[in-house]
C-alpha cells in the first residue's frame, strides 16, 4: 500500500511534484525596505521618510538605514541580521552581536555633529565618545534612536541653514528627527526602571546625544537640563573613586560608566560661532537693543572691544585641559595618599577658576558696553560653571556638597535660559546671509 504522505506521481511524468525546501543560511539579495517591514517580513512601500504601510497601521517606521553605519568585510547576512533585528520597541532586550568595526568616516561625522556652538569645521577630539556611541547603537534601541534623531536634525540644519524657520517650513527630516528623539526619551525612561549598570550607561550615552540634539534645536535651556541631570547621575552613582570620610577612599560604585563630564568639557572648550555686537545708546541716552550681526558685517570698533576676550578664552581652556588630566588621575586612583594629593590639585584648579572669573569681570568692566553681554561671553560663563560643578563633585561626598551643587546648577540653568533667548534673536536678526555663510562652512 502506498504511504499517503508520499507525493503521488502520474505515470510517465518525469516532473517532481514535491521539492524539498532549501536550507539557505545566507541570501545575497539586498533588502531595501524599512527596518520595521523587514522585521515583520512584509513588502515595504519605501516611502520617505516614513513607510506608509507602517504609518497606516499605527506602527513606528524605524527608517531605512542604521545611523552612520558602514560595515566592512562583513557578509550580507550579518549586515541584514543587525539592521533587521533592532526594533523601535523600547522594551526590546538588546541583542549580542559579534564585534563590528565602526568606520572612521562615521566617527568623524558624529564627532562633527556633536556641537553646533562651535565653528562647523572645528574638530572636537571626541573620537572615542563617537566610537562608543556608534558601537552601543547597534544593540541599544534608545541610543540608536537618539543617534538617528541627531543625524536627521543635523542633515536638516545643513540643508536649510541656520536661519529662523517657521513651523510651516520645517522639513520631513526635522519632524523625523523629533519623532526619533521622542522614541529615544521613552525608551530611556523604560531602561531606567529600575536603574542598573546597563541602564545608567545607556542614560549617560544618551545624554551626550541629547545635549547635541538640543544644540541643533537651539534649545539651550533643555541642553542645560540634560547636562545637570547627567552630571547628577555620575555623582549619585559614583562613576569615579571618592572619599566617604577624611581618610577613607572607596572605589567607583559602577564600573565603566561613560564619563559625561569629559565629553561636556570637550564640546565647550571649542570656539563659539556666535559673534554679536553690544547694544548701543541713542542720542537721548536710553539704551536700544541692536540686532546682532555676523562677524564679517561688524564694524571694526566693535571687534576691537573684544581683543582681550581671546586671552580669557585661552586661560579657561588651559584650566579645562588641566581638569581633564585631573579627572583621568581620579579615575585611576587606588591609594589614599595619591587621592589626598589630588585633593590639593583640585583646590588649585578651583582657585584658578575663581581667579579667572575675577579677571573676566574686570575685562567686561573695561569694555563697559551697555545692554546684555555678548552671546560668546555667556558661553564662556557656562563653560566656567561646568568646570566648577565637575570639580566640586570630584572625590567629594561631604554633607554640604549637594547644596553647593544645587546652587551652581541653578546658576547654570539661568545663564542657559538667557543664552537660548538671545541665540534665537541672533538667528532671527542675522538673516539669510549668515545662514549661507554657515552652510559654506559646513561643506
Key features of this structure:
disordered C terminus, 4 strands, mainly alpha, 2% strand, disordered N terminus, two-stranded antiparallel sheet, globular, 443 residues
Strand tally, please? 4
The Rg value, from CA coordinates, equals 27 Å
Number of domains: 2
Shape: globular
In spatial order, strands of the major sheet run 1-2
Largest sheet: 2 strands, antiparallel
Pfam families: Zn_clus
Protein name: Zn(2)-C6 fungal-type domain-containing protein
InterPro entries: Transcr_Regulatory_Proteins (IPR052360), Zn2-C6_fun-type_DNA-bd_sf (IPR036864), Zn2Cys6_DnaBD (IPR001138)
Organism: Lophium mytilinum
Question: Can you put this structure into words, describing what you see?
Answer:
It is built from 15 helices and 4 strands. By secondary structure, it is mainly alpha-helical. It is globular, with a radius of gyration of 27 Å. The strands form 2 sheets. It has a two-stranded antiparallel ribbon with strand order 1-2. The chain has a two-stranded antiparallel ribbon with strand order 3-4.
Brief summary of the model shown:
This protein has 15 helices and four strands. By secondary structure, it is an all-alpha fold.
Topology:
Elements: H1 35-40, H2 52-56, H3 76-85, H4 104-113, H5 127-137, H6 141-160, H7 172-191, H8 197-216, H9 220-236, E1 242-245, E2 248-250, H10 260-269, E3 280-281, E4 287-288, H11 300-304, H12 309-332, H13 336-367, H14 375-393, H15 401-442
Antiparallel strand pairs: 1-2, 3-4
Helix pairs in contact: 4-5, 5-6, 6-7, 6-8, 7-8, 8-9, 9-15, 10-12, 10-14, 12-13, 12-14, 13-14, 14-15
Organism: Lophium mytilinum
Keywords: DNA-binding, Metal-binding, Nucleus, Transcription, Transcription regulation, Zinc
InterPro entries: Transcr_Regulatory_Proteins (IPR052360), Zn2-C6_fun-type_DNA-bd_sf (IPR036864), Zn2Cys6_DnaBD (IPR001138)
